[in-house]
Design a protein that fits this description.
Belongs to the DNA polymerase type-Y family. 40% of the residues lie in helices and 14% in strands. By secondary structure, it is an alpha+beta fold. α5 packs across α8 (178-201), α12 (276-283) packs across α13 (285-294) and α14 (327-352) crosses α15. Residues 441-463, 468-498, 506-551 and 573-596 have low confidence and may be disordered. The chain binds 2'-deoxycytidine-5'-triphosphate. The site of 2'-deoxycytidine-5'-triphosphate (DCP) has 16 residues, from β1, α1 and β3.
Length: 596
């Protein structure tokens, strides 16, 4: 359940930056012939043209949607170019997109505290940078305001013909209070950052700029692609008054449904009718206070200083005839997955000096003559040992333990329709452990051999743990940030930038009215809801939307924006809770035998 974090008294400037049709942009950069052409990226499974996972804005004009399969999309847009997601070891390989996301993060993180929230979205705390700008180069003193900043959508400002002039006045208001002046600086900083991202990576992005993470995240998709939306404090009541509760982060699930069903709350603004005490009576002290605060746009969540993922995961689905029915076929695929996982944690160790501590196995399964079809294959975890063959061995043991629990030790036929392995509880290696690192680097990493680790590591007890609670621990990895940001320098660098980022979408309707963009978002949200309810009501969902849950590739899900992950996981494991087991956070703990 959500908990209210204490909010800082000082005003903050937070941005949420979200890449536009990200995988499509990455593919268009790789193959410039695709630029300006309706394009979509499809899953590697080519059934009915493959499931669309990213749709370019040119294709969206024709009505192409992410819920379609390639064949259907081609029907609505015959010129559509379909690009298949790269494949390695028989499954989707997201490395291309991951490193493209890292290029963007590297640029954004130079200007403020930066939290990589998913493969294509980032939070920035620009408070210090905005303060410096206000002291050294306030908007009203600038010779010119960047055109991209003038194109901002400032909520509450209206959308008159004279919009740019109105935005200029808003950015330069001498009578604005300190909080709103900082926000104006934030808008200019973000506009310049977005131009810099475009120049250095060729990618466009959209952004929300507000006084907290929650509001920034709400604002970033309001005007897409390649635009930014600013949320002055005075616009918050109106924004929340009409915002459906289900669209608010953390209210998409049961809590949101309970608000609707039990309290008749349909929009976030409706919550204003309830006192804090009343909300606490219904939902407990913490959640009650959190609800009371979000109704007022108050959120104390901090931007975490984290540029690297919290965990690594890879998985594969085995729909229909591909279902795995023998231990040897499971072993074969687990070996593939574990090899990839091993490669990724090794390069994390190499590049970032981070160690993953927990190995987890998830599966979806069914059994013959099932009398308890609601019973899920239990997720299992144990201490993670480095080296591909050790991971393979442990994953296989986790699988066997999970299978025996799933089958209740009965000797019946079974099938596996999805397998995934994950490495989590990632910690930074403390200083002074160079010799250990050297050992990992020189022996284990190159050979991928399991034997080398035995020489150094005491074998941990491999307690197999059933997973019961979501891992919310957040290992942080810091990167240098600049405390001051010289707007002028950035402006100079981009002085030759003609026009705005929107021109990269010339000919697209994307720059059109706010209304159409809002409708688009509503429609997509509606469709997802319908799909989710179809899936929930249908144990073997092949629904009218042509969308089959069996085909969701867990490896594709892992790095998606959090709300999409939650949504998809909600379909797959409606009542799943992950591991509670708290481990020590030092390397010493890792090398000592695990306690049973
Ligand atoms: N993705 C995926 N499967 C999904 C949803 C998304 O593989 N069901 C991938 C492809 C997307 C990327 O994640 O390009 C980012 O997802 P977003 O939801 O941010 O959507 P896009 O960036 O594609 O488009 P938008 O411009 O609407 O944000």
């Amino acid at each position: 359940m959500p908990v209210a974090r204490p909010e800082r008294q000082e005003p903050r400037v937070i941005a949420h930056v979200d890449m536009d049709c990200f995988y499509v942009q990455v593919e268009q950069r790789k193959n410039p012939d695709l630029r300006g052409v309706p394009t979509a990226v499809v899953q590697y499974n080519s059934w009915k043209g493959g499931g669309l996972i990213a749709v370019g804005y040119e294709a969206r004009k024709f009505g192409v949607k992410r819920s379609m399969r390639g064949d259907e999309a081609k029907r609505v847009c015959p010129d559509l170019q379909l690009v298949q997601v790269p494949v390695a070891r028989g499954k989707a390989d997201l490395n291309l997109y991951r490193s493209a996301g890292s290029e963007v993060v590297a640029i954004l993180s130079k200007k403020g505290k930066c939290e990589r929230a998913s493969i294509d979205e980032v939070y920035l705390d620009l408070t210090d940078t905005a303060k410096s700008m206000l002291l050294e180069a306030p908007p009203e003193g600038l010779d010119s305001i960047p055109e991209e900043a003038l194109k901002s959508h400032v909520l509450g400002l209206g959308s008159d013909a004279n919009k740019e002039e109105d935005v200029r006045k808003w950015l330069c208001r001498p009578d604005a209070d300190y909080e709103e002046k900082l926000l104006a600086c934030g808008a200019i900083i973000v506009a310049e950052l977005r131009i810099r991202v475009l120049h250095e990576t060729q990618f466009t992005c959209s952004a929300g700029i507000a006084h907290n993470k929650m509001l920034a995240k709400l604002a970033s998709p309001m005007h897409k692609p390649a635009q930014q939306t600013v949320v002055p404090a005075s616009s918050v009541p109106d924004l929340l008054a009409s915002l459906p509760v289900k669209k608010m982060k953390q209210l998409g699930g049961k809590l949101g449904s309970s608000l609707q069903d039990d309290l008749g709350v349909n929009t976030v603004g409706d919550l204003l009718k309830f006192s804090e005490q009343k909300l606490q009576d219904y939902y407990g002290i913490n959640t009650g206070t959190w609800l009371w605060k979000i109704a007022r746009g108050i959120s104390g969540d901090e931007v975490e200083d984290r540029l690297l993922p919290k965990s690594h995961g890879c998985g594969k689905t085995f729909p229909g005839p591909m279902t795995l029915k023998t231990t040897s076929s499971v072993k074969h695929w687990l070996n593939q997955l574990c090899e990839e996982l091993s490669d990724r944690i090794q390069s994390d160790l190499d590049q970032n000096k981070r160690i993953a501590q927990t190995l987890t196995l998830h599966a979806r399964a069914f059994k013959e003559n099932d009398l308890e079809p609601q019973k899920k294959f239990p997720s299992k975890s144990c201490a993670l040992r480095y080296g591909a063959s050790k991971i393979q061995e442990d994953a296989m043991r986790l699988f066997e333990s999970g299978l025996s629990e799933f089958l209740n030790s009965k000797n019946v036929g079974w099938g596996i329709t999805s397998l995934a392995v994950g490495a989590s509880k990632i910690i930074d290696i403390p200083n002074g452990t160079t010799s250990i690192l050297k050992y990992f680097n020189e022996k284990c990493i190159s050979s991928n051999s399991s034997d080398c680790s035995d020489a150094l590591l005491e074998e941990p007890n491999h307690t197999v743990t059933s997973i019961s609670k979501r891992d919310d621990e957040n290992p942080k990895s810091r990167a240098p940030t600049e405390s001051a940001f010289h707007t002028k320098g950035l402006s100079d660098k981009n002085a030759n930038v003609k026009g705005t980022i929107l021109r990269y979408f010339s000919g697209s309707s994307c720059s059109s009215s706010n209304q159409s963009s809002a409708n688009k978002i509503d429609l997509e949200e509606h469709e997802r809801t319908v799909i989710a309810s179809e899936l929930n009501s249908n144990p073997n969902p092949n629904n009218n939307w042509g969308f089959n849950i069996e085909e969701i590739d867990p490896s594709v899900v892992d790095e998606l924006p959090l709300e999409i992950q939650r949504e998809i996981r909600g379909w797959i494991h409606p009542s799943k809770r992950i591991n509670t087991g708290k481990r020590g956070s030092t390397i010493a703990h890792y090398f000592s035998p695990a306690r049973n």
